[in-house]
Specification:
Helix content: 25-40%
Distance between the termini: 126 Å
Radius of gyration: 37 Å
Structural class: alpha+beta
Oligomer: single chain
Length: 413
């Protein structure tokens, strides 16, 4: 009997305490509701908008105001390989009511937003990028997340390239005559870091390699030929008075210690590798990395040639009718190089001027013996320097993936 009485007392006390606790909670809630008029507690936010101490209607008005301000003043831009396109803010739908319904007093709740999928695909396509290269759903998720924070952003599409498209390959390559100096420094692998500049002079200094200006120019010219059919940006480049032997017209990059350098910038989010090796009497330079979204095709205008003057010098050391060649002449050249940019659908987006290289003619100097009535000196006949042109051979511009087309590469002596 005593055990049964104890149990009854225990349950009676338990029910009494539960009732008192529940009554206290209900009373507190009722009081707060009466005093605050159903406002959100301190510390309540939806997305970046603080709605503390605001009613449902006030919270809706506040969030809607912030969204409208965002639509008027903010941009979300997509970019890839220097091409940019802005997503119109009217493509976004903000689900304010649903966001408020999900709000928990005193806590932060995401602002729900969605972007028009087809409109987003159109913006991506305007950059010449297709969905087989870019994971559009990942782009969409990132764009909606940015909009939910009511912030601006510039998103690089290169970080959303599909994994199967990121396999490294040989993108371009160049060949120049080798030398003992170049053979001594190969094989060499150079990593071109993302968002970094590369200097040929600095590279040789860091490696402790001391080359002649002729060898450095051969190396830099091959490197230039390899990187120019890409989106890499040329920062500094020089040419010589006369095109060196073995270097193709339009692709010289002269380097001389403390005077001339070849510098370029990798604007991509990925590193690229340059591999140099010698084989036989040639040095090969290859650019290796993830394929570019765009294809870059090189073209030249017909090369303009300028005939040299003939300079006659008279010498008392020669017989009256004797002639000697003191300096062989060489035609001057003007080479204009362009880069055509194509999207993955093989539609040309733009043509970008790359360079205009001018090599003045080297004058022909002839020694002659003195004749009666002619004093010892120099005579320069009236030159004919009107430019002549030679049409370059045109290849099929598509050929293999990332194939370079360089037009006329003849060198005339």
């Amino acid at each position: 009997m005593r055990q049964i009485a104890s149990l009854k007392l225990f349950f009676t006390l338990l029910l009494t305490v539960s009732y008192l606790l529940a009554s206290t909670k209900v009373a507190t809630w009722a009081y707060e509701s009466f005093v605050s008029g159903d406002t959100f507690a301190k510390g309540t936010s939806i997305g970046p908008v603080d709605i503390s101490n605001r009613s449902y209607e006030e919270a809706y008005e506040r969030i809607n105001q912030k969204v409208n301000e965002w639509k008027k003043t903010t941009q979300i831009t997509l970019e890839i390989e220097e091409k940019k396109s802005t997503i119109p803010t009217n493509m976004f739908t903000f689900h304010i009511e649903e966001s408020i319904k999900r709000a928990e007093s005193g806590k932060s709740t995401p602002l729900l937003v969605s972007v028009d999928g087809q409109a987003l695909q159109d913006v991506i396509s305007s950059l010449g990028v297709s969905s087989d290269w870019i994971d559009v759903e990942k782009v969409r998720a990132q764009v909606e997340q940015t909009a939910a924070l009511l912030t601006s952003a510039q998103l690089s599409l290169s970080q959303y390239i599909r994994e199967e498209m990121q396999k490294e390959t040989i993108l371009s390559q160049a060949i120049v005559p080798s030398s003992e100096e170049l053979r001594a420094m190969t094989p060499t692998t150079i990593v071109i870091e993302p968002k970094q500049v590369f200097s040929v002079s600095d590279f040789f200094k860091q490696q402790g390699i001391n080359l002649s200006k002729e060898a450095m120019t051969l190396f830099a010219s091959a490197l230039y030929e390899a990187v120019v059919p890409t989106n890499f940006e040329i920062v500094e480049r020089h040419t010589s008075p006369v095109l060196p032997n073995g270097i193709k017209a339009g692709f010289e990059a002269a380097v001389e210690r403390n005077k001339k350098d070849f510098i370029f910038f990798n604007p991509n989010d990925q590193p690229y590798t340059v591999e140099c090796e010698t084989e036989g009497g040639q040095m090969k330079v290859a650019l290796i990395g993830m394929p570019f979204i765009y294809q870059y095709v090189l073209k030249t205008d017909p090369i303009e040639y300028y005939d040299p003057k003939t300079i006659v010098q008279y010498s008392a050391l020669l017989k009256p009718n004797e002639k000697r060649i003191k300096e062989e002449g060489k035609k001057g050249m003007l080479i204009r190089l362009y880069k055509e940019v194509y999207d993955r659908n093989r539609t040309m987006i733009e043509t970008v001027p790359v360079s205009e290289d001018f090599y003045p003619p080297v004058h022909h100097v002839e020694l002659r013996g003195l004749q009666a009535g002619v004093s010892n000196g120099t005579e320069t006949p009236t030159p004919n320097e009107s430019p002549s042109t030679q049409l370059p051979q045109q290849d099929d511009i598509w050929g293999n993936e990332n194939e370079q087309i360089k037009g006329n590469e003849d060198e005339t002596s």
